[in-house]
Amino acid sequence: MQHRTLGQSGPSVSALGLGCMGMSGNMYGPADRAESIATIHAAREAGVTLLDTGDFYTMGHNEMLVGEALRGIPRDSVQLSVKFGALRDPAGNWIGYDARPAAVKNFLAHTLQRLGVDYIDIYRPARLDPAVPIEETVGAIAEMVRAGYVRHIGLSEVGAETIRRAAATHPICDLQIEYSLISRGIEESILPTCRELGIGVTAYGVLSRGLISGHWQPGSAQADDFRSHSPRFQAGNVERNLQLVEALRRVAEAKGASVAQIAIAWVAAQGLDIVPLVGARRRDRLAEALGALDVTLEQADLAAIEAAVPKGAAAGERYAAAQMAHLDSER
């Protein structure tokens, strides 16, 4: 397994991380508990050390699942990245966000209990709380760093100005944000700011929720699946986006790789300061994703990929309008 260091202040992690959100609930279709745990075990056996979760993923279920899967595994052999702050009601509805200092410590206490660990490697607010200055949120996590409950501080889906303010409060190891062939907005100001400040990037959505995986078929999303209301999967958009996938498939076939492997390898090739997170929920999808690490993209390959999927070619935004309005990274 290759390794990359998250920023100037962060840990050394596997060059590919495992995003565990889809292993709980039905956001990307029904999850299978036994297969999810088997996938985490397979990831560990393959050398994957970075596991990403959130305390609001099915109201704590995901943390408990990850904790169960890691039981008996040496604590220092994995890096746990945890997001916090989103509020949900008993029906699972999203009802707000809370990143006040007291809430930070409260959320962390529950996370440690559910995961069954005594510290979190990277702790990050999932979004910017508009009611709380980022300095207060980061300052509260910094107190937990000094107390030994957190090793490193990360951010998620915030813009360049917020990144600067956070980094002035405490060293930030990485920014978690969507980045893929069809989501390249960070290239304008966010990625340059991270590089100026020595902050790494953990890229999620590298396959755009399966859209550019080469496996997606129209009409396969269930009613409660995120993709059933995601703009890029809607009629009029999805057809255009799948044309991009077919163009990418021709590049992948010429390279002897799958579409997903080319898409993941492209993200990894954008810099050693970027670690792709893959949301594999099954061992076969994990094995395919890991194969991306064996794909070397030369300049000619990158040019062919760019021609197949030009920047800005995707139809539809990455989230619905209401969700986009809450993203500091999109302002």
Task: Explain this structure.
There is one protein chain. The chain contains eleven helices and twelve strands. 36% of the residues lie in helices and 17% in strands. It is α/β, with parallel strands linked by helices. It has a single domain, classed as NADP-dependent oxidoreductase domain (TIM Barrel). It is globular. Helix 1 (33-45) links the parallel strand 3 and strand 4 (50-54). Residues 16-308 form the NADP-dependent oxidoreductase domain.
Element layout with pairings:
Layout lengths: L2 E3 L6 E3 L2 E3 L13 H13 L4 E5 L6 H9 L9 E6 L1 E3 L5 E4 L3 H15 L4 E6 L8 H13 L3 E7 L3 H10 L2 E7 L11 H8 L2 E5 L33 H18 L3 H10 L5 E5 L4 H8 L8 H10 L12 H4 L7
Parallel strand pairs: 3-4, 3-12, 4-5, 5-8, 8-9, 9-10, 10-11, 11-12
Antiparallel strand pairs: 1-2, 6-7
